[in-house]
């Protein structure tokens, strides 16, 4: 239904193209009715959604033309419901808040039109709670599809902070009313992020699959990538890695590699060893060649290997990393991982001669043994929160095992301090 109505927008788009190419006659655009200009605007936006970035300057110009046309419009123009709807759609398409405020003050709107107008003005001014209240009684499904799709998208956006499940339903309505449009692209992007927030792995996978299959060329796809990476990490316990692989398989090799690098990095810092190792391996598979291994993939796989890998495995990966090819923040991460690896593989000092002659060593308590057992464990709470890692009393003279236990405890304390630092590193770019 939306596609059929927008075909007529090509007529206005053709006329407006002449105005865009001939500035001296730009005013000819004002002979069109607002609803004709908005249809042209929507045609342009739908092409942007599927990756026609070259047409974006035309979107900006159409918004300017529409703004001028609305400011010069009379109350009689808006007696035509098509023009009134066009004004509301323009507001939700990146319109000028000042123009909308001026029009709403001049027009005597009633009923649902008044509520939509109030809600949109709050939305344009960044007042989400007020917009949510104003639009509460508006049912997008009762409106014309072009207007209802936008209203559902706006309602879903302003409701996301308080009612995630309700917001997801509204975003589904936006997609139903505006298939194949920039509205659907935006609704899918928001659905990916919201599904991760509510812990719905199935909905997250479905929305991600639909987005990847339709809108990866959109100029807004980087926002999808952010939501996808965060969602994979947040839902790692309930998300099948094969599903992740099926979604990324729809991307080109470079997009896929970057996605896996980002997942590996986040998962490594969060201590998600299996996910980090999986993503690091995938990133390495999509690298240019073994001769030019991506230093980031090596770094993140090294980070994943710290809790359970062998010293040879970790050091071999670290040795191949060219730090000059890393960003400053990843160089700091490399230093931290290298320091942790060195601490984990350090050799305890030799026993003193007195200790080596002891025939009946003192029995070591469970509290003293725990740091040794945990020396190679995955990072957990800081040592200050673990009684087993609290400073111990001085060992008995002549104890053969106490010095080794103390040394191991020191290694664990230092290692966990470094792992805590890794957790905090790069927080500003998470």
Automatic annotation (TrEMBL):
Cleavable signal peptide: 1-26
Bias (Low complexity): 371-405
Keywords assigned: Signal
Organism: Pseudaminobacter soli
Region Disordered, residue ranges: 347-410
Name used for this protein in its record: Chemotaxis protein MotC
């Amino acid at each position: 239904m939306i596609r059929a109505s927008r075909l007529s927008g090509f007529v206005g788009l053709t006329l407006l193209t002449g105005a865009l190419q001939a500035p001296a006659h730009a005013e000819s655009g004002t002979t069109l009715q607002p609803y004709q200009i908005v249809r042209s605007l929507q045609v342009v936006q739908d092409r942007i959604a599927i990756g026609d970035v070259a047409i974006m300057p035309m979107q900006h110009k159409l918004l300017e033309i529409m703004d001028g046309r609305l400011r010069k419009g009379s109350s009689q123009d808006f007696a035509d419901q098509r023009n009134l709807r066009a004004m509301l759609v323009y507001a939700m398409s990146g319109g000028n808040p000042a123009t909308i405020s001026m029009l709403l003050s001049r027009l005597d709107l009633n009923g649902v039109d008044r509520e939509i107008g109030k809600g949109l003005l709050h939305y344009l001014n960044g007042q989400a709670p007020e917009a949510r209240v104003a639009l509460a009684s508006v049912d997008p499904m009762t409106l014309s599809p072009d207007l209802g799709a936008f209203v559902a998208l706006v309602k879903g956006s302003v409701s996301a902070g308080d009612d995630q499940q309700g917001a997801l339903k509204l975003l589904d309505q936006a997609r139903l009313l505006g298939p194949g449009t920039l509205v659907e692209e935006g609704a899918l992007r928001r659905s990916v992020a919201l599904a991760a927030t509510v812990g719905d792995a199935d909905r997250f996978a479905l929305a991600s699959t639909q987005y990847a299959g339709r809108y990866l060329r959109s100029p807004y796809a980087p926002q999808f990538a952010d939501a996808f990476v965060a969602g994979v990490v947040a839902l790692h316990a309930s998300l099948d890695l094969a599903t992740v692989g099926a979604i990324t398989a729809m991307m080109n090799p470079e997009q896929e590699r970057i996605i896996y690098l980002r997942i590996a990095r986040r998962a490594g810092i969060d201590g998600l060893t299996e996910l980090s190792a999986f993503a690091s391996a995938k990133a390495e598979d999509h690298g240019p060649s073994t001769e030019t291994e991506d230093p980031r993939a090596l770094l993140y796989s090294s980070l994943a290997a710290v809790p359970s890998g062998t010293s040879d495995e970790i050091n071999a990966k670290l040795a191949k990393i060219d730090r000059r090819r890393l960003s400053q923040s990843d160089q700091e991460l490399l230093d931290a991982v290298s320091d942790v690896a060195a601490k984990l593989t350090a050799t305890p000092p030799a026993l003193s001669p007195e200790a080596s002659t002891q025939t009946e060593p003192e029995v070591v308590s469970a509290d003293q043994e725990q740091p040794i057992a945990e020396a190679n464990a995955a990072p957990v709470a800081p040592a200050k929160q673990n009684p087993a890692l609290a400073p111990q009393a001085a060992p008995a003279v002549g104890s053969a095992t106490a010095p080794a236990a103390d040394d191991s405890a020191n290694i664990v304390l230092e290692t966990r301090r470094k792992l805590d630092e890794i957790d905090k590193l790069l927080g500003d770019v998470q």
